[in-house]
Amino acid sequence: QEVLFDVKEAEVLVQEKDSPRLLFCYPYPSISCGGRCVGSSNVFAFCVVASPESPDGSTFDCLVFASSSEHEREETVRRIGKG
Asked: What's the superkingdom here (predicted)?
């Protein structure tokens, strides 16, 4: 599925490419880590707290994406890392 990835000042938004439908919205405190795949030039991912209401907050989801270019991937990962 093609999406638009918007790294804002306080959150990461993922929206359907051809509609205004918002798929994900994660504030930076809910993102635990992010990075790129060594074996592929365009794949990157980040992990988010899956159930923030749980007492220990230890359940995470990993969201994996493929960018259209290595440069785009590096810029997205860098911006998420700056949070």
From this structure: Eukaryota
